[in-house]
Amino acid sequence: MSTSLIIGKFGAPFGVKGWIKIHSYTEPHDNIFTYSPWYVKEGEELLPIDFVDAKVQDNGLIALMPEIIDRDEVKIYTNLDIHIMKEQLANDCEDDQYYYTDLIGCEVSLLDNTTVGTVTEVRDNSAQDLLVIDCDGEELLIPFVMPHIIKSVDIAAKRIVADWVIDLS
Q1: Burial environment of residue 27 by CB neighbours within 10 A (0 to 12, 13 to 18, 19 or more)
Q2: Domain with CATH 2.40.30.60 in the chain
């Protein structure tokens, strides 16, 4: 089964002709429009959808969805996550490059080889991204700052080494 990734979220309707605001998690933000199709979750199922048109506005991104002609119809998408399949990502990473989604499931250890836990999420914190780590059921945050805090990332071994002071008692 294919893995899906959340790359954005639908916002509020924009105007009266069926456009909707798009909150993109891609960098740069308008890269979200390079992926097609998008998927939305209905129950446990991912349904493919495509946009008919897209625009970069001064205040953000907007998209026009197929067969939607007014703001009332497009409301069904408001607050839904926009997914793509992992296979849709470019597979042109160098050996030392990776997508943040590749960090999910990695074991985090300290310099003394003490295991901290497993990465469950990478969170955007404006100042720097944070690794969200499940540490025996507790959520632990470590700044994802290389090479000062994160000393190494080995995607093949699913292992991250951090120089961080943690009270595990």
Answers
A1: exposed
A2: 4-88
Average pLDDT (33-51) is: 93
pTM as predicted: 0.69
Question: CA-based angle 119:120:121, to the nearest 5?
Answer: 100
Please determine, for residue 167, whether its predicted confidence score (pLDDT) is greater than 80: no
pLDDT band at 66 (very low <50, low <70, confident <90, very high): confident
pLDDT of residue 12: 95
The domain defined by 100-162 carries CATH number 2.30.30.240: yes
Domain with CATH 2.30.30.240 in the chain: 100-162
Q: Contact at 8 Å (CB) between 84 and 35?
A: yes
Owner of token pair 């991250």: 160
- Sign (positive/negative) of CA torsion 58, 39, 95, 124? positive
Among candidate residues 18, 47, 15, 20, the one with its CA nearest the CA of residue 32: 20
Task: Round to whole Å and give the CA distance between 84 and 33.
Answer: 11
Taking the domain 4-88, which CATH number applies? 2.40.30.60
Q: With CA atoms as reference, report the closest residue to 150 among 167, 168, 133.
A: 133
Phi, psi of 56 (to 5 degrees): -100, 120
Tokens of 95: 């050996």
